[in-house]
Give the backbone structure.
Amino acid sequence: MALKWVFNFKKTARIEVPDNGFSLGSGKGPTLLLVHGLTGTPSEMRFLGNYFSRRGYSVVCPRLADHGQPLEILKRAKWESFYETVRETYLKVASQGPVYVAGLSMGALLSLLLAEEFPEKIAGVSCLSPTLFYDGWNVPWWARMLLPLAYFTPFRYYAYFKEEPPYGIKNEAVRRRVDEYYKNATLDNLKSADKYGYPYFPATAFYELRRLRLYLEKRLSRIHAPVQLVQAKDDDMTSVRNSQFLHDRIASRTKEIVLLYNSYHVITADQERETVAQKMEAFFNGLGGPSAGPETGVQGGSRS
């Protein structure tokens, strides 16, 4: 992770970009709402979308607000606008039957917020590499020391962190493709961001993630929907502490932690992505599968 300072006082205009969110399936089965991560893209959820659509689910994955726009636009976005994207998408499919939600990284936190707001409607939540704290093995100590600048000073508007290998990917073939784009990307040349996400992470994004975390923490005890937490033991960005933190504070009677041993942070696109999909499917099936509804009378919890 490298730090770059950019003092740009010019007003940046919004641009027209194709919406790469996707909707799959017939609309007859249960619905799975997928939520990508901060500075990420719906493409990182595409494997899960294809997997579940082949198994009778209707799958929808929106692109979060301001993603795909220039970084000068994205860096001023608030977490509330990201959640509003998720909320609006949910309301469009809520009448179609049971709705499951799965989110990657920050998307996991947004998924939990949805379950808190609609406690009688969300059939189950799968949190994939949930991100509350950047405490993974590839986050340098100096970056953690500088994060208070992003939280409490105006410097957050001018600082960018550039991702460096392994980019949350353990699979070498996938990592090479990401590296080919990331190593040549500049702040004003992000033409492949819709496919690989942003190579630069605005410091303001850390600030918004912190705001979201503090907001969610106060509401964890109100979450009663079944929750699955899936995380790589060697997650390079966020440690297993993140999943444990959520597991210990949500009020769900059905909850589990699933650990992976051959992946890094982006588990939806890494070496065990099929294992992730299978664990999700088994969890949802345990809640009733295609006829699932909100948790009612389920006792106990599990951990694997």
Q: What stands out?
A: Confidence is low (pLDDT under 50) at residues 291-304. The first strand starts at residue 2 and ends at 5. The domain at 14-133+211-291 is CATH 3.40.50.1820 (Rossmann fold).
